Amino acid sequence: MKNKFLFTVILTSICLLIFVIKTFAQDEYNTQSFKVNKGGNIKLEISGGDVQVKTGKDNEVKISNSEDDDYNNVTIYQDGNNITIRSDYYTDFVITVPSEFNLNLNTSGGDVQVLNNIKGRVRISTAGGEIELKDVSGELTATTAGGNISCGNVKGDTKLNSSGGDVVAGSVEGECILNTGGGNVIVKNVTKSLSVSTGGGNVDCGNVGSDIKVSTGGGNISVNNISGEMSVTTGGGDIYGNSISKGGSIMTGAGNVNLNNLSGYVKITSGAGDISAEFVSVGNNKSYITTGYGNITLYIPGNAKATITATVKWAEVWSDKKDISEYILSDFKPSKEDYNKKRGEYHAVYDLNGGGTRIDLETSIGNIEIKKSKR
User: Fold this and answer.
1) Rounded Cα distance, 331 and 318, in Å
2) What distance, in Å, lies between the first and last C-alpha atoms of the chain?
3) pLDDT in tens, 312-323
């Protein structure tokens, strides 16, 4: 019995050793090297497989693939500084290139990783895998049909698109376009304009040097330090913003809106949430803040020249209160107040410092507060 057990252990060990030796021998056999100069290009087009890219110090491209000896399906050829790789079968690749090199990687299904920082133009496409990159000094375009995309800092225009995964980017020195069918989106800094679209995830972005456009089907949105004009829309989430230099348009189907340190005009709409907006300066264009079912709180500097109109449309529908001060509260003295008994509508006007830029506040069912900001 003991001899039989010993024989089984020995046989299993021998088989395992043969497998390891064969695997390593195959990897060594399928490695090729090509002399190149910095700034060259590598183009990969394969029917499927995982791809890893590393950078080396030498002016050399090394290509290792997992091709089975029974299928001579990998074609590699060199034209000066350009390397082209093609395969009609599922094949994994590990590629080493100089640190200054351009990448054009396409796989019909597999993960793509760039494991080191790289200087050059990078284009990546996979039909169904994850895409992961370190820092890129150059333009970046990455597309996946179903995985997550993450990258470090990018010195160049950036376009990242996933059909359903999360999209995460560091600082982008250029224009930035981020799209996903349903995942979350995070971007740290963008020096130029930013456009974000997700079918239903949350969006978190900050330090945008120009205009920003954000849309999500139902997630929360957080934006900070926006130098340009903003357009932000969510089907049903909350919206948070801080340091908005030129104002813009903000809309949520059913969430709350909270904006601080706001300059310029705003058009804020919520279907059924509370709205809080803090102005540092009101600019010259009219602002409009409305919610269907919720409270509105406006903070405004005491020295602002503004004409504020506040309206509670259906006050008596949901309450038996009779005094306008129970619906509209203000740190400023009104220049006009009226109550439409037939409609159950309360209305007040405040001319700050003789009046000026129009700010209209309106809630169908809720309260309005107008407060003098402490800034």
Assistant:
1) 25
2) 87
3) 987 555 555 567
Report the distance separating Cα 3 and Cα 34, nearest Å: 53
The number of C-alpha atoms within 13 Å of 294 and in the hemisphere containing its C-beta is 23
Tokens 């090394």 -> residue: 62
CA distance 366 to 27: 70
Burial of 133 from C-beta contacts in 10 A (0-12 / 13-18 / 19+): buried
Percent of the chain past pLDDT 90, that is, above it, reads 80
- Strands in 66-108 per DSSP E: 74-79, 82-90, 93-98, 101-107
- What whole-number distance in Å separates Cα of residue 355 and Cα of residue 348? 14
- Tell me the pLDDT band of 2, cut-offs 50, 70 and 90: very low
Q: Which two tokens stand for residue 9?
A: 């252990």
Q: Which architecture does CATH list for 30-116?
A: 3 Solenoid (2.160)
C-alpha torsion 140→145→148→152, nearest 10: 0
CB contact set of 28 (below 8 Å; sequence gap of 6+) = none
Most confident of 6-20, 290-304, 328-342: 290-304
Cβ 118 vs Cβ 55: under 8 Å: yes
Residue type for 178, please?
Answer: L
| Contact (Cβ atoms closer than 8 angstroms) between residue 201 and residue 183 | yes
Q: Residues 6 or more apart from 366 whose CB is under 8 A from it?
A: 274, 291, 293, 294, 295, 296, 312
The pLDDT tens digits of the residues spanning 81-124 come to: 999 999 998 999 999 999 999 999 999 999 999 999 999 999 99
Q: Residue for token digits 């060594």?
A: 28
pLDDT band at 72; cut points 50, 70, 90: low
Q: Which residues contact 285 (CB under 8 A, 6 or more apart)?
A: 247, 264, 265, 357
